[in-house]
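fyi for ur records
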Amino acid sequence: MKKIFAIAQKELSVYFRSPIAYVVLIVTIVIFNVFFFAIIDNNEEATLRDIFKVMEFLFVFIIPILTMKVFSEEKQMGTMEFLMTTPTQNNEIVLGKYLGVLLFFSFLIILTIPYYGIIEFFSRPDRMAILTGYIGIWLEGAFFISIGLMVSSWTKSQIVAAILSYLFLFLVYFSSLADKYTNGVVKAIVKYSNVMTHSENFIVGILSSSDLIYFFSGILFCLVMTRISIDTKIWDNV
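which gave:
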């Protein structure tokens, strides 16, 4: 565990030494603030439901920026081989890097907590819906990060990693657009694979085992595939 936390700490420090991280934080919070006050003003309703939807949409575009260099930069600079020759297991490398990105993402989520404080001060919101909404947003981000990590382990190019991450995230986020063109088993698969199908329940205050299984199994699958990728090195020339 110490090695995992050490790698996570290193990964987190890299973010806060990079101007890109601060640009992402500032731009994201500014956008969230604008939408928050616009939504509250228009809806006149004490809820974060619509702001959660804005957040999950923006995360589709933000998270690939955070994950694109996690492994690809290590490969490009030749430090990946050195890291793998240290007395650190590949599982610890994957989990440490994942935890580092997840902590940065969690910090971004924490910066939105004042929204709850504002609506709590002026009204009586549905606290359970807000709590489950934050859980759902965090799980969705954790899932997106695992996808980005997996893709970053496939290539030395940060640009390729970002493009592929966008492709996968668009597939899981916008797959519902294909719903009307399918039926039967295929329709059920498309609906279940769509991330909004599961996040919507959290946003309205529903905790479902099916939704939890979706996110946790997706995260586990991507992390296992990441481990396999760095073990086999089959993508090292990409």
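Residues 2-232 form one domain. thats all i got for now
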